[in-house]
Amino acid sequence: MKDNKGFSLVEIVIILAIISVLVGAMFYSFTLMTGQYARECANNLSTALDKEKNYALTRSASVDCYMEIIKDGKSYVARYYVPENAIADGTDSKGDGADWLFAEEYKIGKSQVNLTYKIGGGSEITIDDDTSVKFVYNRISGAMKAIVESDASEPPAAGGLRRGSIPPASDSSVHTLNGDKVVITLLNGRKYEIELYTATGKHVLSRVD
């Protein structure tokens, strides 16, 4: 009994480190099992799409506004771009970019979620760190008229407005939508799908499994 001096500080630190690792692994397994990240991302993206359609109907002038989705570090974000003024014509009228201005940014979800989309019967396209996807909405009807794929764009200037551009630069690919259905898939433990009915701009969110 006289030799029992208890735990040393090093031993306590090691034990606490082991407990932290185990708790972290349990938390990750729980979120993966319940699909929490996928569910949050799907719900937030659904809200973002509704918001963009509302922007198209209320804040567009003479050109259509758009929403850009990128994977920014540890999360996915949606960036909204609206016409600069009521006479915006969608061209580089001032020689400094275009007539669209960055309006705001909205966090969608964590980067652990696998986010893909498919146009009609085409193949799935993954949104990753090097990809920017723009959803262009018609200012009159609220329909989704095009999807633009390009290299990931630079973040907006700190505290200020940033010009975007449509038509895109030469490193981009434009998919003009003629009523094609677009399916966005979000996967992390569980799978969710957002079906976009582009002719009306409406969408339906559902859990697949």
Question: What is the strand and helix layout of this fold?
Answer:
Blueprint: H1 9-34, H2 36-58, E1 66-72, E2 75-83, E3 100-110, E4 114-119, E5 125-126, E6 131-137, E7 144-151, E8 163-164, E9 173-176, E10 181-188, E11 190-197, E12 202-207
Provide a descriptive summary of the structure in words.
The chain has 209 residues and is α+β, with helices and mostly antiparallel strands. The chain has a single domain, classed as minor pseudopilin epsh fold (3-Layer(bab) Sandwich), CATH 3.55.40. Helices cover 23% and strands 37% of the residues. The chain contains two helices and twelve strands; from the N terminus they run H-H-E-E-E-E-E-E-E-E-E-E-E-E. The strands form two sheets. A seven-stranded antiparallel beta sheet has the order 8-3-2-1-6-7-9. A five-stranded antiparallel beta sheet has the order 5-4-10-11-12. The protein is elongated and about 80 Å long. It starts with 8 loop residues before the first helix and ends with a strand.
Compact description:
The protein has 209 residues and is an alpha+beta fold.
Question: Keyphrases for this structure?
Answer:
209 residues; 5-stranded antiparallel sheet; alpha+beta; minor pseudopilin epsh fold; 2 helices; 7-stranded antiparallel sheet; 37% strand
